[in-house]
């Protein structure tokens, strides 16, 4: 029976079958019953049964197994007196049991007893005993636990030496070599954390990597191997900030967690580790889903580590820090107080020598500092300083986190300087900051963060020219740091602008140029347009930068630079995507192979940027390729999307550098200089209205002369914000009013009159003085709060209307207008009429006039009309047919969404053509689109903070390839559809022009229709509603 049990135990050791372990325990228990105290095999039976409970404990973590091991091993030692050949195994089993119990209770007595028992067992063992390596490893592990408790270097060196000796006894091919590799890696890692030697860190990763490669896919402890390698890569990421390491550690932790059953005793550690990895990623991307997930994971881990679990304090600390991230976004007092309470409890659980104590003290100090910012209590401030001082004392030179403690203490001393004015505190703060920068030099991922804090302290010394020079020197240097998280680098670039403004420093122009150039790089932290939109929402302070930069340039009498800054810094989302569709004609002439390589990369970037992503890691993954028109785009897991986008972007930037190194290609895909931007005015003046708190101006751009600048009133920025609010309130309050169009029209009159008085009348005067003929075309390019307002309708019955003098169009940027004028090789045969696609919902949409409008368009444009009505009008069919038609007319409902990418044109049976669908479509031969639906040129009222991004359906049509688009600013009156369409196409088709350029006459045709409506005294809400965008 005993022999059979041992055979099953051996098979379990190699195959991991739970049934073998259960059978082993059953047989050994029965064998023990058959071996009374006087039986010669009882001692051996006790030892083997204790070892079997040991095996089961490693699977279940059951306290019953630990207690049973202690009971069995203690009795076995009574049989195995000194000199007995089984005494060593019995000592080892008892030591294991006490070690496990220490892991559950944290008892120092259990740990000391463990070390004593392991040492005695090892001394009894022959040097050539095959189990010696395991005994060495066990003793090393117990020293490691005591090192974590007491922090004594003797334990640290003992565990490293013992694990090295253990590995030497298990050469390649040994069945337990993987365990020794992992154990030595843990020991070397502890030494790395103590002394910070990079060679130790690389050694750790090498050991864990060899370990994982040695593990078969079905190896029972593969999860531990994945976790160990991920943990070591996490440490390297903290040291060097490589995003490759960040991607890999998240993936490894997820794989490790997926391999564990819900009741596995190691699950708590993996939950904690994955949460920490997501925290690092959140530092770089700001993704809300990462924040929510890491809080959830830490809460689960804490539930699995009840008192007196030895790692409970670590998990409480990590949960507290996750709550801090949420607090920084929401300002919730509940999150702050919960964070403080968790950290206080964690600090109480840790002894003064615990290696994690410095982390908890530092975080508790930061939490109390956040409370001090609200309470302004001197007691809170002194407590913060005291805690940071204690944390610093626990982090000697060489400690990986010493720079953080130096920086934190320096910040708090600066706070005390601000409160009490002691120059001693400020000088002490500066000394600590300088030491922190030595700990985290250029190339360290925390360099930008601690440099930004140093700059804040330096800015307090404004009477020292040397300190001011140093301030701007370090900010200029760190603003080019691409190793630190981009959020930290952006913060430093914004500091440069802020301090240069405050101190009237001569580097302000350079600061503005740099930060606006940097914004494009900053947006790459979001892998898709949707994520980039969220990034902009989270950093609202950057949205006004282009306007303040332009105001500064104008104050320096440089309106051309102002235009360059505005065009580079506004409409960032569209501009970034538009770069992926720039023609490569010049590059193809220089190097066709390089052009093909670049095209492949940017095509994939475009696909990834418009992809649908999910936080579900089981989603299908797409590496490359273009979806067919009208097909569903595959959903990609966020982990994979982020990793793939970054890798492709790195290669893209490398190839872009190669291209710009070619003679004549130095400015390839660079922001356009004014000499190129002025080409936007070839068809008529472009009127840019810069609305800034630093001064508002009109800049009229002409194709053949210098721009004209008109300075607006000092309070124009405030009045513009008031007009925007009035306009939005009018749209909201009149939506459900009886006779809504009439009521809205009345409220619009005030806004139209204000626009005329404040700005448009002065523009008309200047245009007249510049000899711009009446009824010429003009383009509006307003900024900030003005982007929503109806400039084309400015005026009043008493003062006259702009529409009586000029034909208005809009453009989001000058570059967008230039792109709209770019000629493409026509794929549609030249003919008198365009090839037009009409998409309609004539029966199921509750639009009574939809059928009449469809007939009008068909009558005017037959036989060149393709109609998709009712069930024919699906998302897939519309996208497919748009590829083969150069004009489009939509007759359906349109809706705004809180998420602008979900704003949509409504098709058959609930199907929709969303803004995101339009973005994905690439329609290089499209010319004109009439969106006869509600809200198609209206930006979401809930996201008015991002008005300069011009995220509406008509803007998406312009981006996808249409040169000329008609849209609506609010709900469209159903009865107007047929009459407007009839008069619009009647006017447009009668104009004398090149058939391929007829779309450039759309603005004149729309002007003719809306002017008639105005002259016939239609409600302003009906004729002002229609706007033209593009050429």
TrEMBL record:
Gene3D superfamilies: Immunodeficiency lentiviruses, gag gene matrix protein p17, Tetratricopeptide repeat domain
Superkingdom of the organism of origin: Eukaryota
InterPro entries: CHAT_dom (IPR024983), Matrix_HIV/RSV_N (IPR012344), TPR-like_helical_dom_sf (IPR011990)
Residue ranges of domain CHAT in the record: 752-1030
One protein family per Pfam: TPR_10
Protein name listed in UniProt: TPR-like protein
Organism: Lentinula raphanica
């Amino acid at each position: 029976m005993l022999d059979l049990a041992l055979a099953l135990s051996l098979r379990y050791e190699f195959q991991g079958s739970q049934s073998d372990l259960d059978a082993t325990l059953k047989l050994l228990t029965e064998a023990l019953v058959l071996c009374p105290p006087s039986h010669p095999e009882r001692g051996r039976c006790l030892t083997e049964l204790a070892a079997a409970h040991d095996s089961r404990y490693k699977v279940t973590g059951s306290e019953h197994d630990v207690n049973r091991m202690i009971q069995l091993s203690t009795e076995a030692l009574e049989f195995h007196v000194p000199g007995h050949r089984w005494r060593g195994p019995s000592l080892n089993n008892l030591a294991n049991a006490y070690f496990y119990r220490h892991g559950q209770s944290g008892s120092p007595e259990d740990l000391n007893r463990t070390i004593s028992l392991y040492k005695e067992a090892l001394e009894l063992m022959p040097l050539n005993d095959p189990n010696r390596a395991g005994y060495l490893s066990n003793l090393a592990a117990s020293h490691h636990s005591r090192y974590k408790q007491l922090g004594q270097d003797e334990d640290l060196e003992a565990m490293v030496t013992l694990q090295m000796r253990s590995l030497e006894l298990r050469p390649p091919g040994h069945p337990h070599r993987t365990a020794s590799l992992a154990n030595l890696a843990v020991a070397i890692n502890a030494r790395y954390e103590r002394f910070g030697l990079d060679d130790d860190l690389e050694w750790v990763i090498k050991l864990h990597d060899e370990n994982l490669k040695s593990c078969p896919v079905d190896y029972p402890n593969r999860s531990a191997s994945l976790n160990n390698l991920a943990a070591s890569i996490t440490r390297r990421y903290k040291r060097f900030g490589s995003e490759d390491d960040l991607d890999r550690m998240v993936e490894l932790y997820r794989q490790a967690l997926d391999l564990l059953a819900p009741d596995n005793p190691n699950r708590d550690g993996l939950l904690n580790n994955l949460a920490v990895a997501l925290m690092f990623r959140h530092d770089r991307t700001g993704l809300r889903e990462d924040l929510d997930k890491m809080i959830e994971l830490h809460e689960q881990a804490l539930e699995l580590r009840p008192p007196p679990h030895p790692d409970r304090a670590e998990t409480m600390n990590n949960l507290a820090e996750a709550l801090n991230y949420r607090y920084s976004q929401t300002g919730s007092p509940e999150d702050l107080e919960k964070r403080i309470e968790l950290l206080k409890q964690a600090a109480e659980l840790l002894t003064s020598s615990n290696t994690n104590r410095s982390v908890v003290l530092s975080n508790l100090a930061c939490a109390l500092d956040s409370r001090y910012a609200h309470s302004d209590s001197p007691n809170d401030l002194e407590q913060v300083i005291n805690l940071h001082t204690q944390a610093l004392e626990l982090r000697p030179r060489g400690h990986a986190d010493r720079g953080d403690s130096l920086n934190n203490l320096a910040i708090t001393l600066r706070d005390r300087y601000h409160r009490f004015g002691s120059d001693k505190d400020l000088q002490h703060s500066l000394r600590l900051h300088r030491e922190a920068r030595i700990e985290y030099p250029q190339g360290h991922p925390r360099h930008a963060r601690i440099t930004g804090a140093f700059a804040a302290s330096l800015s307090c010394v404004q009477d020292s020219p040397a300190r001011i020079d140093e301030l701007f020197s370090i900010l200029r240097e760190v603003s080019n740091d691409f190793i630190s998280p981009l959020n930290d680098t952006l913060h430093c670039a914004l500091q440069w602008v802020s301090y240069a403004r405050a101190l009237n420093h001569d580097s302000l122009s350079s600061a503005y140029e740099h930060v606006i150039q940097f914004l494009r790089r900053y947006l790459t932290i979001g892998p898709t347009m949707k994520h980039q939109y969220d990034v902009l929402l989270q950093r609202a302070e950057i949205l006004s930068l282009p306007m303040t930069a332009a105001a500064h340039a104008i104050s320096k009498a440089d309106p051309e630079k102002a235009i360059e800054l505005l065009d580079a810094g506004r409409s960032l989302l569209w501009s970034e995507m538009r770069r992926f569709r720039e023609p490569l004609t010049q590059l193809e002439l220089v190097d066709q192979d390089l052009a093909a390589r670049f095209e492949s990369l940017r095509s994939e970037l475009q696909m990834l940027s418009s992809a649908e992503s999910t936080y579900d890691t089981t989603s299908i993954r797409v590496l490359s390729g273009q979806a067919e028109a009208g097909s569903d785009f595959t959903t990609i897991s966020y982990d994979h999307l982020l990793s793939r986008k970054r890798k492709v972007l790195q290669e893209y930037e490398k190839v872009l550098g190669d291209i710009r190194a070619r003679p004549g290609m130095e400015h390839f895909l660079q922001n356009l200089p004014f000499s190129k931007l002025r080409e936007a005015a070839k068809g008529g003046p472009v009127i840019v209205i810069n609305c800034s708190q630093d001064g508002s101006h009109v800049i009229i751009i002409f194709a053949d002369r210098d721009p004209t600048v008109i300075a607006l009133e000092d309070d124009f920025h405030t009045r513009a914000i008031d007009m925007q609010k009035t306009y939005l309130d009018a749209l909201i309050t009149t939506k459900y009013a009886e006779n809504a169009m009439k009521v809205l029209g009345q409220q619009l009159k005030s806004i139209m009159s204000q626009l005329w008085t404040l700005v448009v009348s002065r523009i008309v005067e200047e245009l007249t003085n510049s000899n711009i003929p009446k009824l010429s075309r003009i383009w509006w390019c307003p900024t900030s709060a003005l982007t929503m307002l109806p400039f084309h309708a400015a005026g009043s019955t008493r003062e006259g209307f702009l529409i009586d003098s000029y034909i208005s169009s809009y453009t989001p940027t000058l570059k967008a207008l230039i792109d709209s004028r770019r000629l493409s090789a026509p794929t549609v045969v030249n003919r008198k009429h365009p090839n037009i696609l009409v998409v309609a919902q004539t029966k199921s949409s509750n639009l009574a006039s939809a059928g009449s409008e469809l007939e009008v368009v068909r009558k005017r444009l037959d036989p060149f009309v393709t109609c998709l009505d009712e069930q024919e009008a699906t998302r897939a069919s519309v996208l497919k047919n748009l590829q083969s038609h150069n004009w489009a007319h939509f007759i359906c409902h349109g809706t705004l969404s809180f998420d602008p990418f979900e704003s949509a044109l409504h098709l058959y049976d609930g199907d929709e053509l969303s803004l995101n669908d339009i973005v994905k479509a690439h329609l290089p031969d499209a010319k004109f689109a009439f969106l006869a639906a509600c809200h198609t040129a209206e930006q979401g009222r809930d996201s008015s903070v991002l008005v300069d991004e011009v995220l509406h359906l008509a803007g998406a049509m312009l981006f996808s390839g249409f040169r000329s688009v008609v849209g609506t600013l609010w709900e469209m009156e159903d009865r107007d559809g047929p009459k407007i369409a009839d008069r619009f196409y009647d006017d447009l088709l009668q104009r004398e022009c090149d058939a391929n350029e007829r779309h450039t006459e759309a603005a004149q045709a729309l002007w003719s229709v809306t002017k008639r409506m105005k002259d016939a005294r239609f409600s302003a809400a009906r004729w002002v509603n229609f706007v033209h965008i593009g050429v």
